[in-house]
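Here is the promised in-class demo. Please do not try to memorize the tokens; focus on the logic of going from shape to residues.
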């Protein structure tokens, strides 16, 4: 996905690169959920903490820009733009630690 393909939250129109850039420059850091909450939530091991970070991102004024940047950088892990990344791609949710692999032979 590129910035030119993003659609506003209300679905009314595409968001241009210039608009997103202006939005980011004019945004006070204090309005960014990852700046005013514990930043470790965005890289948490706990699936519930990860889901909480994703929920906090939903109100972020630069969410679309953040997500687009993370996609282009192929972020190795963490929550960016309200999505969980692992090895450069968005995954639906984090699995808890210690879960056995599906193809692991039964003992
Ligand atoms: S969308 Fe990006 S900048 Fe906004 S809170 Fe989430 S991680 Fe932070």
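The designed amino acids, position by position:
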């Amino acid at each position: 996905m590129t910035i030119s393909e993003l659609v506003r939250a209300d679905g009314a129109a595409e968001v241009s690169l210039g608009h997103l850039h202006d939005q980011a420059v004019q945004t006070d850091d204090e309005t960014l959920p990852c700046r005013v909450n514990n930043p470790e939530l965005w890289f948490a091991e706990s699936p519930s903490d990860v889901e909480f970070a994703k929920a906090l991102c939903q109100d972020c004024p630069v969410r679309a820009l953040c997500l687009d940047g993370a996609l282009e950088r192929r972020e190795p892990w963490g929550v960016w733009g309200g999505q969980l990344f692992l090895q450069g791609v968005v995954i639906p949710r984090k699995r808890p630690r210690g879960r056995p692999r599906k193809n692991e032979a039964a003992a």
